[in-house]
Specification:
Largest sheet: 6 strands, antiparallel
Oligomer: single chain
Distance between the termini: 45 Å
Number of helices: 1
CATH class: Mainly Beta
Helix content: under 10%
Strand content: over 45%
Bound molecules: manganese (II) ion
Number of domains: 1
Structural class: mainly beta
Length: 134
Amino acid sequence: MELISVSPTATAPSENFTGTVYVNPIYQGTGESRMIVSLVRFTPGAHTNWHWHAVGQTLHCTDGLGLVVSRDGTVVHLRPGDTVYTPPGEQHWHGASFTNMMSHLAMLEETADGASTTWLEPVSDEEYAAAHRA
Ligand code: MN
């Protein structure tokens, strides 16, 4: 076995995220494994851009109150212990609520040629606000 000690906390890049978001890489598979796991911590109001994942993504909320929203208008209000799966190609965003931090484990895989996430445009203020009302 292999101990992977706690990683330094990085700040998520502003070209793909709104607000302050902290990321700790947990695991990136090698060889046959294409698993990627990160702990992502969103401050209140912070969220991703619209995006989609080549092999889907599983989000597991560990703390706080958050939102996961798909392009068809489906809104999940995320609470600790909840898990949301977004299938390959489904456009979505995720993040904290206006009022609370939100932390989730983000679990995904790369394709054989290394594709994982395709980033799109920022979520508009109106889209972000509307998700809270849904
Ligand atoms: Mn995602």
